[in-house]
């Protein structure tokens, strides 16, 4: 039953690049595109999703033996929805500004295929410690892409990052970057670049 | 008459101006995943429209008569997702029994719809916008039509793209995203269509 | 015991459902006071922004509408504020309008809540746009794209004409609601 530390580290690293949820698996796209108009929103969404992912992976890997196979999916969805509601109320109570700007994309974490997918693919088959490592890795992998995307869009679209103005008055913002069209195009180019890098590495 | 105009405007703005996929970013997963062929894209759109219209009606009833009446707002997300999952299951069983032809066309897409965030997004937007029952159903139907429109257009473009010379690293997802971006720009042209 | 028997399936789902409902009830009760405090704080800030100099605010209900009357240190009424909302470009816009009833002018407006596009429609929260309304007499406003030359003209934000004109309509409506409730409109 002993799980080697090496195994845990490789589970953790898996989500960061090799099986990065956005770049590699192309799942969880709705929030990726919708809330990355600023760096801060991207970070907040990444952390909120990571919390739900890790918490659900822990609970599900703990009780996996008690859930009959036929109601596996409904049970997972119920557990995920509970954590999402928790995050939503928590943000509304303590970080009202962030809750406001993420609006319906916080409750939509429920249907983020990334979360349900990891429960099916990982948490329901592996011990809790490995599930935690997987959740943290996937969560971080999701978060960093969101932050990078948010930073690129905010930089070009508003000339700032994390709300700090970097480019002076002379800069005429490329408004298209913060609009839906900019989201699609930036992510498309980003995925292309990542494909290029990982192909070079081989 | 006044009301009818309002409903018609709501429908048009849901389909074109606030398109679920291209403007609201809801339902991106099937948009990228099931848009390789026009025919399958259309079936997916049809199945989604069907479930969306039903979901709009069901969630409005539940939200108004159960959640708001009993003051249980914190159970909104849990109950909506249960409603959607059961509805999809029910629709699947119903179609299987009544129309094998339709089942053959839509069957494989139905389970995918549960985790389509466009459906959940629709359920969440209805109480947020405070629509009446009829407006909700029209909103649900319009959202479905808009979804179908975007996914079929995308599939048409991707069929053509098969013959294009796309740089290797951009093949597949990246080029689809870039096309979606250009489509989103085109749809921005509709934004001045109605001033409500 | 058969793990996949119907009884077992229902039992599992019910247990998860009950535990989840209990947990959420607790979360709801724990966070509600904070959420309400946040909302009250937002409201208070918006009122003090649109009625500068008001020390005390009184809630007044006239014909089912809630108005906020601000009074200064001497107890003189500074003005009346009203919160109105309406559809914007992306979602609903909520804003607070403060008016001076004696001079029949808008004092200031404040955007409480909106979902407009960052960098474009979201600039309705910029001072440059909001100050358009300060000192405007009651009535209907025209949205123009160039610097306003007449009193009733409001300059739209470049590239966000829809957000600008919808906001203007919400302000207009708020002004006429206040005016009607306080017996003006003559």
UniProtKB/TrEMBL annotation, chain A:
Q: Which GO terms describe its cellular component?
A: endomembrane system; plasma membrane
Keywords of the record, alphabetical order, are:
Cell membrane, Electron transport, Membrane, Translocase, Transmembrane, Transmembrane helix, Transport
Major enzyme class: translocase
Give the bilayer topology.
Multi-pass membrane protein
User: Is Chloroplast there in the keyword field?
Assistant: no
Checking InterPro entries in the record gives: NqrDE/RnfAE (IPR003667), RnfE (IPR010968)
Where would you find this protein in the cell? Cell membrane; Endomembrane system
Q: What does this protein do?
A: Part of a membrane-bound complex that couples electron transfer with translocation of ions across the membrane.
**According to its UniProt record, which protein family does this protein belong to?**
Belongs to the NqrDE/RnfAE family.
Q: Which HAMAP family does the UniProt entry name for this protein? A: RsxE_RnfE (MF_00478)
What's the protein called, per UniProt? Answer: Ion-translocating oxidoreductase complex subunit E
What organism is this sequence from?
A: Halanaerobium saccharolyticum
Q: Which gene encodes it?
A: rnfE
TrEMBL record, chain B:
Its keywords, alphabetically, are:
Cell membrane, Electron transport, Membrane, Translocase, Transmembrane, Transmembrane helix, Transport
* Membrane-crossing residue ranges in chain numbering: 6-29, 41-62, 74-95, 107-127, 133-157, 169-194
Compartments, record wording: Cell membrane; Endomembrane system
Instruction: Describe, as the record does, how this protein assembles with itself and its partners.
Output: The complex is composed of six subunits: RnfA, RnfB, RnfC, RnfD, RnfE and RnfG.
Question: What does the function comment of this entry state?
Answer: Part of a membrane-bound complex that couples electron transfer with translocation of ions across the membrane.
Question: NCBIfam families this protein is in?
Answer: PRK05151.1 (NF003481), rnfA (TIGR01943)
> What protein name does the entry list?
Ion-translocating oxidoreductase complex subunit A
TrEMBL record, chain C:
What membrane topology does this protein have? Single-pass membrane protein
What name does UniProt use for this protein? Answer: Ion-translocating oxidoreductase complex subunit G
Q: Which domain of life is it from?
A: Bacteria
What's in the keyword line of the UniProt record?
Cell membrane, Electron transport, Flavoprotein, FMN, Membrane, Phosphoprotein, Translocase, Transmembrane, Transmembrane helix, Transport
A single GO BP term for this record reads: electron transport chain
Where in the cell is the protein located?
Cell membrane
State if Translocase is listed as a keyword: yes
Q: What does this protein do?
A: Part of a membrane-bound complex that couples electron transfer with translocation of ions across the membrane.
Q: Which residues carry this modification: FMN phosphoryl threonine?
A: 161
Q: Which cofactor does it need?
A: FMN
- Which top EC class applies here? translocase
Kindly give the InterPro entries that the UniProt entry links to this protein.
FMN-bd, Ion_transpt_RnfG/RsxG
Q: What is its EC number?
A: 7.-.-.-
Q: Describe the protein's quaternary organization and the partners it interacts with.
A: The complex is composed of six subunits: RnfA, RnfB, RnfC, RnfD, RnfE and RnfG.
Would you name any one GO CC term? Answer: plasma membrane
Q: Supply the Pfam families for this chain.
A: FMN_bind
Domain named FMN-binding: residues? 88-178
In its UniProt record, a GO molecular function of this protein is: FMN binding
Name of encoding gene: rnfG
Q: What sections of the protein cross the membrane? A: 9-30
């Amino acid at each position: 039953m002993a799980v080697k530390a090496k195994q845990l580290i490789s589970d953790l690293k898996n989500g960061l690049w090799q099986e990065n949820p956005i770049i590699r698996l192309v799942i969880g796209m709705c929030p990726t595109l919708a809330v990355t108009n600023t760096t801060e929103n991207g970070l907040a969404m990444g952390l909120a999703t990571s919390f739900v992912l890790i918490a659900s992976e822990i609970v599900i890997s703990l009780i996996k033996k008690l859930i009959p196979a036929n109601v596996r999916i409904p049970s997972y969805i119920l557990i995920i929805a509970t954590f999402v509601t928790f995050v939503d109320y928590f943000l509304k109570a303590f970080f009202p500004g962030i809750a406001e700007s993420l609006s319906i994309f916080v409750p939509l974490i429920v249907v983020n295929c990334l979360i349900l997918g990891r429960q099916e693919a990982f948490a329901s088959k592996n011990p809790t410690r490995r599930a935690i490592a997987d959740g943290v890795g996937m969560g971080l992998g999701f978060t960093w892409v969101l932050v990078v995307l948010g930073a690129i869009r905010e930089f070009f679209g508003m000339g700032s990052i994390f709300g700090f103005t970097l480019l002076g008055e002379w800069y005429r913002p490329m408004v298209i970057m913060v609009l839906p069209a900019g989201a699609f195009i930036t992510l498309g180019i980003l995925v292309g670049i990542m494909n290029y890098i990982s192909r070079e590495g081989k | 008459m006044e009301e009818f105009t309002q409903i018609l405007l709501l429908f048009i703005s849901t389909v074109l101006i606030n398109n679920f996929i291209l403007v609201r970013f809801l339902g991106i997963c099937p948009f990228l995943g099931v848009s390789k062929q026009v025919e399958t894209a259309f079936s997916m759109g049809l199945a989604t429209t069907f479930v969306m219209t039903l979901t709009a009606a069901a969630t409005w009833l539940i939200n108004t008569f159960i959640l708001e009446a009993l003051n249980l707002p914190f159970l909104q997300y849990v109950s909506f997702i249960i409603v959607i999952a059961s509805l999809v299951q029910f629709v699947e069983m119903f179609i299987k029994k009544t129309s094998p032809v339709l089942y053959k066309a839509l069957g494989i897409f139905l389970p995918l719809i549960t985790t389509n965030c466009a459906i959940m997004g629709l359920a969440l937007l209805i109480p947020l916008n405070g629509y009446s029952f009829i407006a909700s159903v029209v909103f649900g139907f319009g959202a479905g039509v808009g979804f179908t429109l975007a996914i079929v257009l995308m599939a048409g473009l991707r069929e053509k793209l098969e013959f294009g010379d796309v740089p290797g690293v951009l093949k597949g997802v990246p080029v689809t995203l870039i096309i979606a971006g250009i489509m989103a720009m085109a749809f921005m042209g509709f934004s001045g269509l109605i001033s409500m | 015991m058969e793990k996949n028997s119907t009884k077992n399936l229902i039992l599992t789902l019910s247990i998860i459902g009950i535990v989840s409902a209990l947990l959420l009830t607790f979360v709801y009760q724990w966070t509600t006071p904070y959420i309400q405090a946040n909302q009250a704080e937002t409201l208070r800030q918006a009122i003090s922004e649109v009625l500068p100099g008001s020390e005390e605010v009184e809630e007044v209900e006239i014909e089912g509408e809630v108005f906020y009357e601000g009074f200064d240190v001497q107890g003189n009424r500074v003005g009346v504020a009203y919160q109105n909302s309406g559809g914007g470009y992306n979602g609903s816009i909520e804003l607070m309008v403060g008016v001076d009833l004696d001079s029949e002018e808008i004092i200031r407006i404040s955007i409480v809540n909106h979902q407009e596009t960052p960098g474009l429609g979201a600039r309705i929260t910029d001072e440059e746009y909001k100050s358009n309304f300060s000192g405007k007499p009651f009535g209907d406003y025209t949205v123009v794209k160039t610097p306003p030359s007449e009193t009733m003209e409001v300059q739209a934000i470049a590239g966000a004409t829809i957000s600008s004109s919808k906001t203007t309509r919400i302000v207009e409506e708020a002004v006429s609601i206040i005016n009607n409730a306080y017996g003006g409109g003559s």
